[in-house]
Amino acid sequence: MKVYLLYYLILINIIGLWSMGEDKKRAIRKHYRLSERTLFGIAWAGGSIGSLVGMYTFRHKTKHWTFKLGIPLILIVQILIFSIILKPYLFL
User: Fold this and answer.
1) How far apart are alpha carbons 52 and 64 in whole angstroms?
2) How close are the terminal C-alpha atoms of the chain, in Å?
3) What number of other Cβ atoms are within 10 A of residue 16's Cβ?
4) Residue-wise pLDDT tens digits, 40-89
5) What is the DSSP string of 24-46?
6) What angle do CA 14, 43, 50 make, to 5 degrees?
7) For an engineered disulfide with 24, which of 42, 51, 55, 58 has Cβ 3.0 to 4.6 Å away?
8) Can you tell me the distance from the alpha carbon of 37 to that of 84, in angstroms, rounded to the nearest whole number?
9) How far is the C-alpha of 24 from the C-alpha of 37, rounded, in Å?
């Protein structure tokens, strides 16, 4: 069970990183873009670290306050949720 969760988190964060890069590439080429809802959805699904890294790696959405504050806030919420869930297992 724990291994599957780790694999999931790795995969969703890779998707978060990729989605920021892909949306930046599409923006430059003036092609159809990924929606902000999709980008935030990936972050909420556990890909907030990858999305945050992608934002600053590709310099994408860093001027939008909703992303500049929203993605780190999602990450903080996820850290709190995981720490509450995993608290009983941390002090064995």
Assistant:
1) 13
2) 18
3) 25
4) 999 999 999 999 999 999 999 999 999 999 999 999 999 999 888 877 77
5) HHHHHHT-PPPPHHHHHHHIIII
6) 30
7) 58
8) 27
9) 15
Q: What's the one-letter identity of residue 17? A: L
Owner of token pair 């941390």: 90
Tell me how far CA of residue 8 lies from CA of 22, 23, 45, 60, 89, in angstroms: 20, 22, 10, 24, 20
- Write down the residue that tokens 């873009």 correspond to: 33
List, for residues 4-33, the tens digit of each pLDDT value: 988 999 999 999 999 999 999 999 999 999
CA distance 49 to 46: 8
